[in-house]
Every structure is written in structure tokens, then in C-alpha cells.
Amino acid sequence: MSVIDEVLAANARYKETHDASLYSPSPRRHLAVLMCMDTRLLSAALGLDFGDAHFIRNAGGIATDDAIRSLLVSHYMLGTKEVMVINHTDCGLMKATEEEMHQIIETKAGRPPNMPVRFHAFKDVAKNVHEQLERLASHNWVRKELTLRGFVYDVTTGHLTEVPWECKRS
Ligand SMILES: [Zn+2]
User: Fold this and answer.
1) 59: closest CA among 121, 129, 148?
2) What is the per-residue burial (b if ≥16 Cβ within 10 Å, else e) of 48-63?
3) Which of 53, 100, 122, 129 has its Cα between 20 and 30 A from that of 91?
4) Domain residues for 68?
């Protein structure tokens, strides 16, 4: 049995108790969280329950064009008012350079990519969070009514530390 088959079996049990009236497409606490896809980053560590927030996740917790697209939908269409950007210690994107990641994956794939890939590798996690906040703030649709704050999550201690950042949006 594959993991997907196990998930399907779990869903067959879950649907018996599902109550759609408990959930809304708009986050109950008007929060969006942009964070790494790392398995050690848990919504429970943030005190957030299902329905509380939008979680926009990718490798690294990077403010890519697509992450910004999702945040714009979250804010303008679904009413979120605050954004947390969370990167974490021991992130896989800190363990190789952009070039090394390309080489490793091209070797494993056995051929070069047929479309551009950028991994957004980084070395300094706090600096990386700062850069994501700057990138979000540089979009003229990310208005100042949308609070932006950045954090580093320590996967060893479970502690979240805010990255100082001054928002210069007009
Ligand atoms: Zn990560």
C-alpha cells in the first residue's frame, strides 16, 4: 500500500465526521504565514489551528512571484491583515550554493532542465528573512495596511525569534 493509498483510507474514515459548517475560506484570525515546507515547522508551534490562517509554503519560505500571488489573494480576496514570514535554522537551502544544487539535481535527473529553475539558496537565515520582507514590501499592491513581520524558527528549541526590520512602504 502506498502512502497515498493510506491517505485515501484515512479520508474515507474522516469524511464520516466532517462538518463543513466549522470552516470558512477566510482565515478566522486574518493571518497569512509564508514559511518553509520543512516537516519540523508546525502550525501547532505557532498556536494556530485549522481555519486560523493561510499557510503559503515553499522550500525556504521564499517570497517568490507565486508566493506573492497567493498573499495578494489572501489579503485582497480573503481578508488577511497580517503576514508572518518564517525561515528556520538547519534549512536545506543553506546546505549548498545555487550552483551546487543545480549540479546535484542535474546529475540525479540525468539531464539539464528544460525550463529555468532557481532554488533561492542562502547562507544567513536572518538576512534571508530580511530579503523576503523587502521583496514583499517592494510590490506596490502590498499596501501598508498589510502588516509584514519576519521570524527565524529554531528547529532545536522550538523558539521563534523576530528579525528586526523597518518597513519603508509609503
Ligand atoms: Zn527549510
Assistant:
1) 121
2) beeebbbbbbbbbbbb
3) 53
4) 30-163
Distance 150 CA to ligand 1 centre (A): 15
| 47 within domain boundaries | yes
The CA 40 to ligand 1 mean position distance, Å, reads 9
Would residue 60 count as lying in a domain?
yes
User: What is the rounded average pLDDT of the residues 19-24?
Assistant: 88
Number of domains in the chain: 1
Residue 46, pLDDT > 90, answer: yes
Residues 151 and 160: their CA atoms lie apart, in Å, by 6
pLDDT, tens digit (0-9, with 9 covering 90-100), for 108-127: 999 999 999 999 999 999 99
Say which CATH number the domain at 127 has: 3.40.1050.10
In a domain, 5, yes or no: no
pLDDT > 70 fraction of the chain, expressed in percent and rounded:
99
64 C-alpha vs ligand 1 centroid, how far in Å?
Answer: 15
Section 18-25 average pLDDT: 89
Instruction: Tell whether pTM > 0.90.
Output: yes
The cell for 73 is 489573494
**What's the 48 CA to ligand 1 centre distance in angstroms?**
19
